[in-house]
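Student: Hello, beginner here. Can you help me understand the protein record under this note? Any guidance would be welcome.
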Amino acid sequence: MQLNRRLERLDTRLQSIPADAVNSLVTQIATIDEFKGWWSGRGLPAPAMRKDVHATVAVSALASTQIGGRNTTVAVAQRRLLRGRPLRDGRASAAVTAYAEVLATVFANYGGMRFSQELILTLHERLLKDARGNPSQRGRYKTVADTAADYVRRKMESPALRAADPDLTPQLMTAATDWTARRLAGDDFHPLLVIAAFILELLAIRPFVDGNGRLSRILTNLLLLQCGYTYVPYASLERVIADRWAEYYLGLRRSQATASLPRPDIAPWLHVFLDVLQVHAEQLRRMLASRTDDTRLSRNQLAVLALLERDEELTNRLVCRALNLPKDTAKQVLGRLATLNLVQRVGAGRAARYRKVAPQADDGSAR
């Protein structure tokens, strides 16, 4: 009975969206879904884009830990991370590396991940695997009340803004994960509203001693991917959140403050959450507009790019042999790819070799 009441409470949040907020929310969702449909219609990402995911992981890891208050200089740290070098700050390096590893795993394996409390605990443990503090707090819900200085300060705030009592945390997390799984499997609410409502609930409960914010961003990526927003790995969602952190946090707190009222107002949080997704999609659209549309490449050109995914370097002779092309055709294909800046020519004449152009790292800013 208690679980049913909690599930009803979560439904009520979305059923009680103020009428004057509905139109703007519908417009935001339509914009995001239009981009989702456009992306899906493009087919599989071209080979030239797939390495962008590595840059996105690096930017996202740095941005997410920066939100947590770390002072690592993003531009410098990004270059070091992309080159496989450790950060100078050992603690920051551990946090960034762990986040990058977990995010990369989500990007690669989201289809086989079943959303559940067990998954949430596993992801949390991996996020904090090298963190300082009590190892028993990794991958486990908190068992004692928060005592950190910022939480002591929050005890002066409204009870609605305080973290859940440790004794209630398992029950609240059960309700939140069960409700999210059920609603994402059904059609009662749009999936973006369900994801936003779950993240709000997670951050209101604050089920862990540390890492709640980082975990919320990992789960946001995971749930978006599982709901068909497959473009997520190609631009940094965390960077957008970091750039709008004040608005993001304010919207979260405003909706959290009314969560237990008879008519809760989740609209402030929904607006800011959807705004982040809109900006993220727009940044990716701009990035793609500045590039050659690889989906318009010929079959032979795409085949050469596929060969370069396997081999670091090609010659005209190797292309002729691998694709069974005449010498002049192979030369034209390679020349066109060089003109489009998708391959780099090294040497001249018979000694000419062709290499894949390294993708530019995305620093997460609008282009």
